[in-house]
Amino acid sequence: xxxxxxxxxxxxxxxxxxxxxxxxxxxxxxxxxxxxxxxxxxxxxxxxxxxxxxxxxxxxxxxxxxxxxxxxxxxxxxxxxxxxxxxxxxxxxxxxxxxxxxxxxxxxxxxxxxxxxxxxxxxxxxxxxxxxxxxxxxxxxxxxxxxxxxxxxxxxxxxxxxxxxxxxxxxxxxxxxxxxxxxxxxxxxxxxxxxxxxxxxxxxxxxxxxxxxxxxxxxxxxxxxxxxxxxxxxxxxxxxxxxxxxxxxxxxxxxxxxxxxxxxxxxxxxxxxxxxxxxxxxxxxxxxxxxxxxxxxxxxxxxxxxxxxxxxxxxxxxxxxxxxxxxxxxxxxxxxxxxxxxxxxxxxxxxxxxxxxxxxxxxxxxxxxxxxxxxxxxxxxxxxxxxxxxxxxxxxxxxxxx
Length: 402
Description:
This is Phospho-N-acetylmuramoyl-pentapeptide-transferase. Keywords: Cell cycle, Cell division, Cell membrane, Cell shape, Cell wall biogenesis/degradation, Magnesium, Membrane, Metal-binding, Peptidoglycan synthesis, Transferase, Transmembrane, Transmembrane helix. The protein is mostly helical. It has helices at residues 2-13, 24-41, 43-52, 78-92, 98-123, 132-152, 209-230, 236-255, 258-264, 275-293, 302-319, 326-329, 331-354, 366-372, 377-397, and strands at residues 158-159, 164-165, 170-171, 175-176, 180-182, 190-192. Strands 1-4 form a two-stranded antiparallel ribbon. A two-stranded antiparallel sheet has the order 2-3. Strands 5-6 form a two-stranded antiparallel ribbon. Strand 2 (164-165) and strand 3 form a beta hairpin. It starts with a helix and ends in a 5-residue tail after the last helix.
């Protein structure tokens, strides 16, 4: 809303400094600072409120060192992340931008699902929380909406080449609707999902949405569940997510900036640069949340936070056409997910074959395996962050590594 106020002041009164609103970099920097202030200054008040309402974590006995000390720690701290993200976005972003609107929808939608899950755990004293099938329905619902918007909305386009007439310096616009995405690490690295059903013959273009929307559903569901599983020890989910989102912010900025996109020879996505404002606010919220969530945690994000984080990361990756980088960029989430899948599958297999279930890991998800091996959770979190930084840098380097 401040964006529109500054725009009005600039157009009507040529108010000194008001023209800064035009620069995404300025608004992104302000969004980061404001979200950091909101999450740190108001975070303590929210934590105290949660504590007064006795909204504390119920800890299951897993035999982990220091586990019992966490009982009663306020949960639902994801509210801090959501609030610290949305306030700067509503103040500083262009709210008519379709990418920003989709990200706001994602934040609220997944936040509500996570809140319901936490509410049932805390107030209904049901450790299982919201039934898994209802979570999946919510994730699928978001995937359908996001997929339909990205496929059908007229303002979600890519710019075809050639983009510049070098002789005159005039930009020629060829914005087209496309389901093209990026294949990382290859020179000619564009892939259109329509190729998956091109065998249907003439008119197959009318049915690309039948393959595109299910892919979006799968990505949203997988990444949000991965973030949920990663939220197991103090600071792990918030820290690794902040690293991932910074990398996506770089992708959003260069993909939405014609000059950088042309220089890097990557897909130019009109209007996508505005997502940088949202991303800056989201990173500020995550870093501010870490002030209270780092070991020893004063608050847990709960599913309110973890499902929101996963949903936002998934939508961002799809929006900047980098979803094929998710297995690398979200490598921590993937490892946590796979550790659970492999552990359960191997346990069931050995139980059928030998009459007793056996385990590959001491405990899943993966971070609990290292806890069982005697590593302090601060060391585990720091090392996971280091791996996350390496993966994020590697993904950013892929812009030129082809």
